[in-house]
Amino acid sequence: MKFTKMHGLGNDFIVIEALENVDYSELAIKLCDRHFGIGADGLLVVEPSGIADIRMRIFNADGSEAEMCGNGSRCFAKYVYERGIVKKEKMAVETLAGVIMPEVFVENGKVESVKVYMGNPIFEASKIPIKSDKQKFINEPVKIDGKVYKLTSLRVGVPHTIVFVESLDENMIKELGPKIEKSSLFPQGTNVDFVKVEDKENISVRTWERGVGLTLACGSGACASAVASAVLGKTERNVNVHFKAGKLLVEWLEDNSIYLSGSVEEVFRGEIEL
């Protein structure tokens, strides 16, 4: 089986084209293993679509299928454009979260960066979903291991819960992340974004991804963090979101639409026996 390894700021993916009679969940677990497989945060599958230019399926490293992925969609757009599968610089991509519209920016035939329309943020508690008698879950106190944290939850393709912190301590993130992810508050689980506000136009983020763990970057997490920061008056609506390996630009427009922009890279291509 042929594959391509790609990443957006270190958030890495294995991209393959559709296969017959394959359990993609099992394949994702096998391929994404960093010791016995290729190693990645997720598996992206290129499939034909009846409603868009192309269809993207996303499987996390634990085999669960995700509705959407910001960095994954940017890697996917670079892949299908450079392979000539989709010959449009602005394309429609079907996902479980709906149709998204990545736009590739090309220099000398190579995609250098990708901007993707990420939809509108959803704050309605029942649609995130979150078990709460409140219509929205914004800056709500939640006790975890005897300590109270203020959480803000929203959906940007997938559920995200934001925790604002003074410092991005990895030990704290690794301890608290899975407890929030698997909290009974979230019947489908949640991604958890730890956010340090630098100034009105810059935030630093570390994301504990549902079904993956701590990742180097997360596109939908960048969007959710930027929107939550703006809603709480901590930043402007256009924000540079800094991860360990670089930054993404999130633009939350007045019409409520979110756009995510940043670089994306191919690491290598290869073949593996299944």
TrEMBL record:
N-terminal signal peptide: none
GO molecular function, one term: diaminopimelate epimerase activity
Lineage start: Bacteria, Bacillati, Bacillota, Clostridia, Thermoanaerobacterales
E.C. designation(s): 5.1.1.7
Annotated positions for site Could be important to modulate the pK values of the two catalytic cysteine residues: 160, 209
Nucleotide-binding among keywords: no
GO BP: any one term: lysine biosynthetic process via diaminopimelate
Pathway: Amino-acid biosynthesis; L-lysine biosynthesis via DAP pathway; DL-2,6-diaminopimelate from LL-2,6-diaminopimelate: step 1/1
Subcellular location: Cytoplasm
Similarity comment text for this entry: Belongs to the diaminopimelate epimerase family.
Organism per entry: Thermoanaerobacter siderophilus SR4
Binding site for substrate: 11, 60, 70-71, 191, 209-210, 219-220
Gene: dapF
Keyword Nucleotide-binding: no
Protein name (database record): Diaminopimelate epimerase
Function (record text): Catalyzes the stereoinversion of LL-2,6-diaminopimelate (L,L-DAP) to meso-diaminopimelate (meso-DAP), a precursor of L-lysine and an essential component of the bacterial peptidoglycan.
Subunit comment: Homodimer.
Keywords linked to the UniProt accession: Amino-acid biosynthesis, Cytoplasm, Isomerase, Lysine biosynthesis
Active site: 69, 218
Catalytic activity reported: (2S,6S)-2,6-diaminopimelate = meso-2,6-diaminopimelate
